[in-house]
Amino acid sequence: xxxxxxxxxxxxxxxxxxxxxxxxxxxxxxxxxxxxxxxxxxxxxxxxxxxxxxxxxxxxxxxxxxxxxxxxxxxxxxxxxxxxxxxxxxxxxxxxxxxxxxxxxxxxxxxxxxxxxxxxxxxxxxxxxxxx
Length: 132
Prior knowledge:
Elements: H1 2-33, H2 39-53, H3 69-72, H4 89-96, H5 114-125
């Protein structure tokens, strides 16, 4: 009888360890696939797309540079207070995915590559974060 009880206790303990360790494993996996709170991800993957398609750091005719910030938003900054990218995430998702022929489609004079559009959509779906 004591041997059966001991086996049951060991089995319950092992199952408890497995069940209680699962949420942390799931959280680890979510962190691995969600590019939402890593400034290096933004700098290496998102910002270059904005530089090429939305603003030029030298302010050479781009729509979302420092010169156009009061009207169109300044994509050289992320901060919503500075009317940068963060303040326009919802509109960005909609306008990026409009048909190219739609006058509201962004970017206006360029077509994003399939990879760039997917990268931006994945980032926006994950919340479009830039953690400092």
